[in-house]
Amino acid sequence: MRDHTVVIGFGTKGRSAIQTVCATGLRTEQVVVVDPSAKAVDAATAEGYTGVMGDATRSDVLRRAELHKARQIIVAPQRDDTAVLVTLTARQLNRGAKLVAAVREEENAPLLKQSGADAVITSASAAGRLLGLSVLSPAAGMVMEDLIQQGSGLDLVERPVVRGEVGKRPRETDDLVVSVVRGHRLLGYDDPAVGALQLTDRLITIVRASPGNQAVPGIRPLPLD
Asked: Would residue 128 count as lying in a domain?
């Protein structure tokens, strides 16, 4: 295995993350699932993924998943302390891979960042915000839930700027642009620093979900949960 995706934990979060990544065209044989539960590993292999059973905080288990050759690493165990240890071990084995991790409690997110995670998703606070939004505005909550459900209704995707868009402002493109990625900065569509779009920019856009949006090179869906 090389340039594959390693997913630590095959619970609800891990499964959803794999489904979102595979929506871009990633083949199931390019995904390796690591989980301490034999039942979870069996379920992963039944869906076409490669399964490795074991404690992902141990470097020998991660080496069996060839994590040191992976391109992407998703850390989604059941416990926050496990997520921290897995992230530390994974980052020691692979310095260059994109590593994202999930935690239940927001107070633990800084620990994941310090351990080497490129991005940290707080599941408890994200669910709480969606609940609160749904109470204040059921319609707005439905829109957010629609965005979370990849491949149906509306999708949030990241794509490159095309040549015909260079020199335009974000709102002058055909898509609904919400943010612009420029270098290492994430800028709002209305940020004065954006100015005119550049060929090296990437756009975060909201588009109507369709099969054509799911396997286009350079376009990747963004999970919200």
From this structure: no
Structure token digits, residue 213: 């949006």
Task: Indicate whether 106 and 208 sit together in one domain.
Answer: no
- How far apart CA 83 and CA 111 sit, in angstroms, is 10
| Pairing, β 119-122 against β 98-103 | parallel
Distance between start and end Cα atoms, the chain: 28
Model pLDDT for residues 171-221, shown as the tens digit of each residue: 999 889 999 999 989 999 999 999 999 999 999 998 887 654 443 334 455
φ, ψ of residue 104 in degrees (nearest 5): -85, -40
> Which amino acid makes up residue 127?
A
DSSP annotation of 5 reads E
Residue 100: φ, ψ to 5°: -120, 145
User: Considering 78, 105, 123, which residue would you say is the last residue of a domain?
Assistant: 123
Contact in structure between 30 and 5 (CB atoms under 8 Å): yes
Q: Are 12 and 112 in a shared domain?
A: yes
Q: Measured between alpha carbons, how far is 218 from 18 in angstroms, rounded to an integer?
A: 18
What is the domain range of residue 50? 5-123
Q: For residue 205, how many other CB atoms are within 10 A of its CB? A: 21
Both 100 and 183 in a single domain? no
The partner residues of 75 in beta bridges, in order of sequence, read 8, 101
Q: Residue by residue, what is the 3-state secondary structure of 121-176? A: EEHHHHHHHHHHHHHHCHHHHHHHHHHHCCCCCEEEEEEECCHHHCCCCHHHCCCE
User: 108 and 16, same structural domain?
Assistant: yes
Residues 106-152 have pLDDT tens digits of: 889 999 999 999 999 888 777 777 778 788 888 888 888 777 776 66
